[in-house]
Structure formats: structure tokens, C-alpha cells
Amino acid sequence: MRMKKTFTRVFSIALLVVAVLNFTACNKQKFNVNGIISEAKDSILYFENMSLNGPEVVDSVRLNADGVFHFSAKATGSPEFYRLRIAGQIINVAADSTENITIKAVFPTMSDGYEVSGSEECSKIKELALMQMRLQTQIDAIAKSPDLGVDAVEDSVAKVLDVYKNNVKLNYIFKQPMKAYAYFALFQTVVLGDANVLIFNPRSSSADVKVFAAVATSWDTYYPQSLRGENLHNIAIAGMKNVRIIHNEAARSIDADKVDVSGLIDIALRDNKGRLRRLKELKGRVVMLDFHLFAGEGSLKRIMMLRDLYNKYHAMGFEIYQVSVDPDEHFWKQQTAALPWISVRDEAGVRSSNLVSYNVQSLPTFFLIDRNNVLQKRDAQIKDLDATLRAMLK
Fold it and tell me: Exposed site from 102, 210, 227, 324, fewest CB < 10 Å?
């Protein structure tokens, strides 16, 4: 009997030790970056975190003749960006889990001649980096052309930039905006004259602001409360303000200090009575921005749910701005004729730029906007819709 108790006690202690070890391991999860950079004997290879405050050295090593290296860092819950650097030669990497990333390169051409394995994100970042280099080569050739005047150079550079941006938006950013490489693409730069400028410029382009906002919205869903996601929101909001100021100054109609700024991407569509309805004009109310397909499965059941919400909270300041992407206008008007909220239709359907701006990847999808016209949450972030609405309506 005593032996049995002793065995039970030892077994319990063993389980406790295993649990502690597992807990410790979970809290010390790391990703690894290793590989070979040949022909770089005695060079210092830096492993740097590309933080929001600039590059910060995580580790470094003096390479031997074989060029073998290994770095590791703590895995985070959202994508984080790093780079391998020898002098001015750089290889960008990204990681958000316990990945094992392998790099093979030859110095001094490691920036454009490296191989990467173990991470799709890093492979896409390599594609973007090489595309960026080719873009810079194009721009430099245009700038040096003896046959082009100043205006022709500016026009030609603008054209190649537009081609590049459209390709990156379609195939990298809008395709999967939650990915690290989509974020990476937002901050690519080129040298124009003596200045290093962003390819996607949220300070002066309303189209580029929407690109930043699309990635910010996606990161809200997949990486809530991440510093990089918050930074994207701040950039998008500041960009909206700046673009409005530029437009207003050009029109000389509104003083810059009177521009109202919010974290809202405006939508202006006609309702089922032909009236133009702007989302931003609902400031002062708590708004559900709802993207819907009336021809979709389960539409009637969902409309009944929305009607219950509307009846319950409308008197408290709740409104629904519902965007239909149905291809049949007559069908949409029939379905919305008796609805009490704002019903508009986007004739572009599922190819709508509004869906892209709000990163709508499935229908139906909704967002909640507070009384100050600030986008607060999307459906995937809300566990109790009634409780969330009551809190916002106070």
C-alpha cells in the first residue's frame, strides 16, 4: 500500500514537471533563420529587426570560410520583419511562428541572388524585392535618356509606376491582405531624383490610402491589437486627412482646419428610391455597414435578424447602411422595398472597389461604425452583437 502511494506521488510529480516544461516551451517558441553566405569570410552578418522605429540589431556573427550562420528569435502572434545584412547587401525575411527559414547566397550579390526555403511569405517578399529592383532600373534608364525632356521623363516614370502598382495590388496586396508580404509591399520605395519615396503614397493619393486601409482592416481581423495593424490605421487616417486637405486647397472651397477626419472609407451609392446616400453623412449615429447578396443562400433569415436589431435599437441612434452587390437591379428593388433602413446597390457587383477597400472576402459581412464616423469592428471580431451595440449606443 505504501509503495502504491509512493508510486502515485512520483507519477504526479512527473506529470507536473512535464506540464511545467511544456508551458515553458510554449512561452519560449522561436523561429530560426539559418543558411550559408559564401565568399564572405570575416564579414559581419547582422540579423536586424525592422521595427516601427527603424532597424534594431538582434544578433550578429563573423562568418567563417564556410559561410554558415544561424539566428533565432522569439516567435510573435503576428508577422514581424527582419533582415540579414552585410554592409549594404540586404535580404528581407518575415516570420510569425516557429518557422525554419533557410537562406543561401553569395556575397557581394546576396541582395538579388539568394535562395530561400521554408517560408512562402519570404519567397513572396523575395519576388517583390526583385520586382522593386527591376522597377528602379527602369526608372533610372528613363531619367538618363537623352531623348526625353523633363515632362516626358515625369510622364514615363508615372506610367511604369502605375503598371507596377496595379500588378502588386492585384497579385499581392488585395489577393491576401493579411499576409506579411502584403504589408511589406506597402512600404516599398524607389529613388526619384535625390529622394527615396514610397511607391504607394498615402500622403497624397486617395487610391493609395485605400490600399493601406484594406490591409489595416484585414490585420484588424487576423492580428487584433498588433502594433503594426494600429500603425497602418494611423497612416490611413492621416492620409485621408492629407488627401482631403489637398483636394480642398485645390478647390479653394474649404479651409484646411475645417476638414473632418475619421477612420472611415466613404461610400456614395444610390438607394432603392434613386437618392444618393453617403455613408459619412450618418455621423452621429452608430452604423452597421452591411455588405449583402439578396440572391445568396440564407438571405431571408439574415434580413429578419437585421430587422429585429433595427427595431430594437433604431430609436437609440442605430442605423443600417446596407450595400447590395446583386447583379439584378429589379430583383434588388423588390427585396428591399419594405426595408426600413438605408439600402443601396453597387452595380459593380462582386468586382466592387468598395469590397476591396473594406477587404470583404465573403458575403455577407458587416462592420460597426461609431457616432464619430470611426470604424470600430468587423463581424469576425464581435462575440456578442447586442452587448457591443448597447455599449456603442450609450
Answer: 227
